Amino acid sequence: MRYLLIGWLVFFTVACSDAAKPPELHDFGLLATGSTVPSIQSNPGKSSINVNAPTWLWDNRIRYRLLFAEPSQVRFYGLDRWIASPPELLEQLLNFSCKAQGYALIIRLQDFEQQFDAPDRAHVIMRYSVEAYSAGGKKIGAQEFYLQKSTKTPDAAGAIAGFTDLAHQASEKIQAWLAGISDRRA
User: Fold this and answer.
1) Which position has the higher pLDDT, 182 or 50?
2) In this structure, are residues 108 and 127 in contact, taking their beta carbons and an 8 Å threshold?
3) Which residues contact 36 (CB under 8 A, 6 or more apart)?
4) What does the angle CA 123 – CA 127 – CA 133 come to, to the nearest 5 degrees?
């Protein structure tokens, strides 16, 4: 009995020490130029790209959903977090990498989560809309986007890598869409 009690004490001590470990913070990584994304506070001026999102996306937790078990329950990774909220990270990335071509952009981020189809199979999704406005404030166009990518691993690391890829794809899709608007206006 004494050894059992000692074993439980060791187990709870190890378990509690892991629970007290602070979460690791992540962002969308390096840009194609090889430089890191500047810090959130480094661009306090007005930008031509503004990202809005529902209230629940304005925290830094990495969310996932088990479609195969509890599809209506949103869960969060405990040991991994974003360094800022997904809308802030996306806005920063887009302001740094996307050329707005003289337009003011309003982006509405609607979905940003990892979804598990099975315990060993997951994908990340990003759904957003973009509105482009001229310098005079006239709405030039609007477009909905839905991006999805299977994760390499069904865990937080897979989610982070997948979301990083989707954020960079979002930048490319927006730039291609804006180029199409410019071509039609010319």
Assistant:
1) 50
2) no
3) 30
4) 155
Q: Which helix (H) or strand (E) holds 121?
A: strand 121-133
Whether the full predicted model's pTM is greater than 0.70, yes or no, is: yes
Q: What is the rounded distance in angstroms from the CA atom of residue 163 to the CA atom of residue 128? A: 13
Share of the chain above pLDDT 70, in %: 77
SS (H, E, C) 63-132: EEEECCCEEEEEEEEEEEEECCCHHHHHHHHHHHHCCCCCCEEEEEEEEEEEEEEECCEEEEEEEEEEEE
Token digits for 161?
Answer: 């890598």
- The whole-number pLDDT of residue 178 equals 92
Domain 25-185: CATH class, spelled out: alpha beta
By the 8 A CB rule, do 99 and 71 touch?
Answer: no
Contact 170, 146 (CB under 8 A): no
Please give the single-letter amino acid code of residue 68: F
d(CA 131, CA 115): 27
- Distance CA(91)–CA(167), nearest Å, equals 10
